[in-house]
Amino acid sequence: MKFGRPHLPTLFWLVGYLFTIATIFYGLSSVRERQLIRADAELENSWQQWRDAAAIQAAGTGPVKRKIPKSTLPPIRVLFADHYTTITVAAIFFGSFLYGMVYFFARGIMTGDRGKLPGDNPKGTLQQPPD
Fold first, then answer.
1. How big is the CA angle at 82 (ends 25 and 26), to the nearest 5 degrees?
2. What are the residue ranges spanned by the domains of the chain?
3. 3-35: buried (b, 16+ CB within 10 Å) or exposed (e) per residue?
4. What is the pTM for the complete model shown?
């Protein structure tokens, strides 16, 4: 098999893929930075109120018996602080899978079988199906 210069559409697909992966990574990184740096009092107060409500329900006075969450940090901060690598790998994996599917279908549509259909008649006359 001889490898030559890649075709221009292939280069466009490759640049699009790299742009997609870079966008996913940049988006996750910026959200992580905002969550870890920002001290959002409203978010922490809301989380503390939820923990207090869970503590009341853990005492048996609510409709559901709950366990009090151990973390004093809101779940979004815990998620981005402790599980950032997992989120990033999963997002890049699924983003690559979806991009690959779009590539596969688009290339199939654009370079599909351009041969004749089984019923095509080159003479331009209609053929009668056999009885």
1. 10
2. 8-110
3. eeeeeeeeeebeeebeebeeebeeebeeebeeb
4. 0.66
